[in-house]
Structure formats: structure tokens, C-alpha cells
From TrEMBL:
Pfam family, one: CMD
Protein name: Alkylhydroperoxidase AhpD family core domain-containing protein
Domain annotation Carboxymuconolactone decarboxylase-like: ranges: 14-95
SUPFAM superfamilies cross-referenced by the UniProt entry: AhpD-like
Alphabetical keyword list: Oxidoreductase, Peroxidase
Species annotation: Kibdelosporangium aridum
GO molecular function term, any single one: peroxiredoxin activity
Length: 151
């Protein structure tokens, strides 16, 4: 097992972690379903290989009412019956936004239109901020090899 390369960078810059946490708090305060946000966080973190965020996302998803089936199958959400249409729209958007460079049209209209059918602008803003902050945490944790369960 690899070891940490350095402490989490956001912990080394005064005010950085507090700012990241403040964005998370603002997202939570929008009223968007916590389970949906946690499933999105979990999926992005799986894609990015961020151990602490995968562990945290799974815990938060269960805390907000996700079933064990959902938590265990979120990486294969397209091939399971355990996600609502709204959750599927959020997960498709999460994957597209997390994998921006994987296709010429980073977030295809089909993905955006389905998400926009299920979420209003404020909810989409919360979901996009959730995906962005998750990717920020992933990009701090993965290269520095932060370990799940260490906090």
C-alpha cells in the first residue's frame, strides 16, 4: 500500500480548507437531496480514484438514505434498477463533468437536457458546484495519496 506523499494541501494553506468546506455548506443549504449529492460525490470520486472521498461518499450516501445496493452499484448505475430517473440524470451529468476531456463535446446536449428536465437552475447550480468541489478534493487527495479512514 502506498503512503501519503504530504499532508492534504488544503490543510497547509491557511483558510483553504475552510473555504472548501464553506462551498460544501452552501451546496447543502440549497435543499438539494443529500442522497443525490452524496451519490454524485461517490461517483466522481470513483472515477478519480480518490480513496478518502469514495469512503466518505459511501458513508454520506448511506447516512442520507441510499440503500446498500445503490452504494455498491453506483459505478454501474446504468445497468441496475436501483436509481430513480433524477438520480440517473445527476449521475450522467457527474460523469460528463468529471470526464471533461474524454470527448469533444464535454457535456453533450442529451446529458444536459435530461438533467435540466429534472432540476431547475438553482438545483443544477448546486449539482454542478457539488461535482466541481468533489473534483477539487479528488485532485488534492489522489496525487498526495491521502488515505481513507485516516481522519
Amino acid at each position: 500500500m502506498s503512503t501519503e506523499r504530504m499532508p492534504n494541501p488544503a490543510m497547509l494553506i491557511p483558510g483553504a480548507m475552510e473555504a472548501l468546506v464553506a462551498v460544501n455548506t452552501a451546496i447543502a443549504d440549497t435543499g438539494v437531496d443529500g442522497k443525490l449529492l452524496a451519490l454524485s460525490h461517490l461517483r466522481a470520486s470513483q472515477i478519480n480514484g480518490c480513496g478518502p472521498c469514495v469512503a466518505g461518499g459511501a458513508h454520506q450516501a448511506q447516512h442520507h438514505g441510499a440503500t446498500a445496493q445503490q452504494v455498491h452499484a453506483v459505478a454501474a448505475w446504468r445497468e441496475t434498477p436501483w436509481f430513480s430517473d433524477e438520480e440517473r440524470a445527476a449521475l450522467a451529468l457527474t460523469e460528463a463533468v468529471t470526464r471533461l476531456a474524454d470527448r469533444p463535446d464535454a457535456v453533450p446536449d442529451q446529458v444536459w437536457d435530461v438533467a435540466a428536465k429534472h432540476f431547475d437552475h438553482k438545483e443544477l447550480a448546486a449539482l454542478l458546484l457539488n461535482i466541481a468541489i468533489t473534483n477539487a478534493f479528488n485532485r488534492l487527495n489522489a496525487p498526495t495519496r491521502q488515505q481513507a479512514g485516516k481522519w
